[in-house]
């Protein structure tokens, strides 16, 4: 039996995934969470094989959750299911430690296939993500500027683009305001920008938010 834990801040999305997996005799949803705090508690007390994770969570993002799981050497395998397009986030999520990536607009049958593949220890990517991986190998210089950002730098960019102040970002990431300011300065330098407004426009134009 594949034990599945869901983490998405939308209850209707969680219900849709739960109903899809309910038809599978080899799967059982063992818990649901809507944010990182709830997820952390579930992971502490609930045994699971696969975590279905959204990127856009309140507080800590899915990318931050992936970083935390990697740091704690968690054995749970993660399938990211997100509304964000694959060309923007799939490869970054895989690099961050995810074992698969699907768009929420995909076929429910594909979700079932992905959960089974990830549970068996395999990586799961769609044909389009596979093509992107091949393209990156053949033309590594074609990557976007934001592909060169570290995970913390990307997290800082997303939070700035969502309108958060540096003090708020520092609190959410459990960092000092000075450290967040350093990340912001690196963002501006790497992206060739000058202020928060331009960072926000960049994130929107590149469909990062």
Automatic annotation (TrEMBL):
InterPro entries, A to Z: CheY-like_superfamily (IPR011006), NreC/VraR/RcsB-like_REC (IPR058245), Sig_transdc_resp-reg_C-effctor (IPR016032), Sig_transdc_resp-reg_receiver (IPR001789), Tscrpt_reg_LuxR_C (IPR000792), WalR-like (IPR039420)
GO MF annotations, alphabetized: DNA binding
Pfam assignment, any one: Response_reg
Domain HTH luxR-type: 142-207
Keyword annotations of the record: DNA-binding, Phosphoprotein, Transcription, Transcription regulation
Gene3D superfamilies, alphabetized: 3.40.50.2300
Response regulatory domain location: 3-119
Residue numbers carrying 4-aspartylphosphate: 54
Protein name: DNA-binding NarL/FixJ family response regulator
